[in-house]
Design brief:
The chain is an all-beta fold. The protein is built from no helices and twelve strands. The strands form two sheets. Strands 2, 4, 5, 6, 9, 10, 11 and 12 form an eight-stranded mixed sheet that branches. It has a four-stranded antiparallel sheet with strand order 1-3-8-7, with no helix packed on it.
């Protein structure tokens, strides 16, 4: 049973930074991990993903501002978010066991509980 626990969300002013963490258990961690987000009234969308070989993919809206990374020793994936904008406000979800190929990710079946990120203007 794969379990994902997110942390690090919160309230920040526009232009500020946050770092999200997702601790994974019940898996070898040699899997693709991703961050998705869902704003009120909108569909869940990809933010960033990192494959087991460390290849990455980002949504165009976050390129140059967000960085995804992983620490295999800690079974943890991170999302460093800089220059945050009000439109980044959403619940952010960690996802595991997806497929990242050609810069396109298909999410896997495992999701965390989500962490709220709110960016005030």
């Amino acid at each position: 049973q794969v379990q994902l626990v997110e942390s690090g969300g919160g309230l920040v002013q526009a232009g500020g930074s946050l770092r999200l963490s997702c601790a994974a258990s019940g898996t070898s961690f040699s899997i693709t991990l991703g961050w998705f987000r869902q704003a009120p009234g909108k569909q869940r969308e990809l933010v960033a993903a990192i494959a087991r070989g460390s290849a990455t993919a980002y949504a165009d809206s976050v390129k140059g501002r967000f960085t995804i990374s992983r620490d295999n020793a800690k079974n943890t994936v991170y999302l460093q978010m800089n220059s945050l904008k009000p439109e980044d406000t959403a619940v952010y979800y960690c996802n595991a066991a997806g497929v990242l190929s050609g810069g396109v990710i298909t999410p896997g079946p495992y999701w965390g509980q989500g962490t709220q990120v709110t960016v005030s203007s």
